[in-house]
Structures are given as C-alpha cells and as structure tokens.
Specification:
10 strands, 5 helices, five-stranded antiparallel sheet, about 190 residues, three-stranded antiparallel sheet, alpha+beta, Jelly Rolls, 434 Repressor (Amino-terminal Domain), single chain, about 25% helix
Length: about 190
Amino acid sequence: MDNSAYLNTWIGSKIKEIRKSKHLKLGDLADKSGISIAMLSKIENGRVFPTFPSLIQVLNTLNVDLNEFFAGLQSEKEFPGYLLKRKNEYTSIKKEEEAIGFDYQLILNHKLERSSMEISLLTIQSQAQREPVTTDGYEYLYVLNGQIKYELGENTFDLEQRDSLLFDGRIPHLPINIQQTDAILLVIYFIEIR
C-alpha cells in the first residue's frame, strides 16, 4: 500500500472511530457538518481523500483538534517491531453501501513496502516443540482456533481465537500451543525483495 492509500484508510478509520465514540450515526454527522452521507461514507471507508476544508469541517463538528487527530499517525520509524491486535480492537467497515449481511472487519492496515507475500495455514499440535526461529521480512498471524503463547524476542503474548499479530520476522519467535487440542493459525509472510 502506498503512502496516499495508507493515509486515506487511516484518516477514514480514525474519523469513523471518533464518530462512533461520540454515538453519532453517519446521517447525524452529515447533518451537522454539511457534508453528504455518500461523501462521508467514502471518506470513512478510505475510498476518497477529504479536501482540507472538508477535513477541518468534520473535525470541528466532532470537536477534535487537528493536531490531536494526527497525533496517532505512526511513521515507519516508530514501528516497535510488532503490532498486536485483539479481536475486540477490529473495526467494522462498510464497503458496499447497498450490501446487507456483509460485515467487514478491518483487522490490520499497515504499510509494508518491497515485499512479496506468502500465505500458510499452520497447525500446531499439543506436544509440538522447536527452537525460536527468524525470517527475513514481516509475519502476520491470525489465530483461527485454539490458544497459544507467542514468544517474540523478550515479549510473550497470550493469544486466543481471532487475535492477530504483525511482527518483524527478524525478531526470534516461537508459537507454543497451551492446549491439549490443535491450534490453527493463518500465517502471512511478507518477504523482503532486495
């Protein structure tokens, strides 16, 4: 994802998060800001980059300071080596305005450049054993079934079904199944292209 696409999605998600935290419906924000529901929907879903006056209008309506709004925007230099997302932190997004019964959950939006992608399904048996490993690039894992402890460098995370983790694969890592049944993970590798 290039910088502009990342910024579009980040701004839209942030506006939606603030709007929902203030218990406002999209129509309420449209009425108060003077921006159409259709345009706000496109902005919130990252399809349209708001003009600066429109962004200021929305932030003023939401009573949010511009500097405060952008304070959470991270640059690549601030990446701590991993991003842990708990299932209750996923954001619902509406992609198709006319769709009924389709609930998209935005799990992760993080820019990774110069990488190829590999997707694997990993089953870890209850007695599985190995030493920590490293990989070139980044790894994203999503717990489909079971509970695991995930050792990542000096950190250990307790992960359960529907939690996810993005991390720099150069940090030694090891998933440990803590149950008597298999744990199943979806693992996506972003391998750096040099």
